[in-house]
Amino acid sequence: MAVPPEPPDEQPPPPPPIEAEGGECPRCGTPYEPFQEYCLECGLRLPVSSGVIPVLATAWRRRVPWYPGDWIWPVIGSLVVAALAAAVAILATTDNGSATKTTAATGPPVPVGTGTIEPPPPAGTNTSSLPTPTIPATTDTTAPAPQPPPPAATELIEWPQGQNGWTIVLVSTPESSGREAATREAQEALAAGLTDVGVLDSSEFSSLHPGYFVVFSGTFNSQSEASAALDTATASYPQAYIRQIVQ
Question: Where are the beta strands (DSSP E) in 21-148?
Answer without folding.
Answer: 23-24, 31-32
